[in-house]
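Just curious. Invent one:
>
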Amino acid sequence: MKTVAVFVGSLRKESINRKFAEAIGKLAEGKLAFRFVEIGDLPLYNDDLWPDAPEAVHRVKREIEAADAVLFVTPEYNRAYTPAIKNVIDWGTRPWGKNSWEAKPSAVIGTTPGATGTAAAQNSLKGLLTVIDTVLMGQPEVYFTYKPELFADDGTVSCEKTRAFLTQWIDRFEAWIERTSEPRTKAQAGPA
């Protein structure tokens, strides 16, 4: 089973994007293993910190590198993705020559109570994800309007139509990861 490092752009304790990502993670059980990466403890990116970078930076880079794929779950702040997402991306690309995002299969999703379902935020983030060398899944897109009644008290998806839609997305992401993953070492790639 492939592991997915999940980056939730909202640091709020009651974040609907966190709840949404956790619900998708439950739906994906047996297909994909979601690993939620803590990003709230990262300092604001500053290149001067590299000589003695905080452990949180090294931990995040290790978690990115250990995952088979990455998933960004972003709310929409002023028609853009969040500063927390930008910050983790910047830390992951540095120092020069040690881009932890390199060749990682990736996807972007998000939710909001509004009708646009984080479309503007996702579209602006997608451009950045190609620049940092992730292998971005373009379709299907998930611009999700969050409604509490679609989810049960235990955090699972209670609406059958929503469950079917999200399961289709999970299946496509799983296939995307399989198709676009590059072997990490020659030993993993098998005999030549």
About this structure: Confidence is low (pLDDT under 50) at residues 185-192. The CA atoms of residues 89 and 128 lie 9 Å apart.
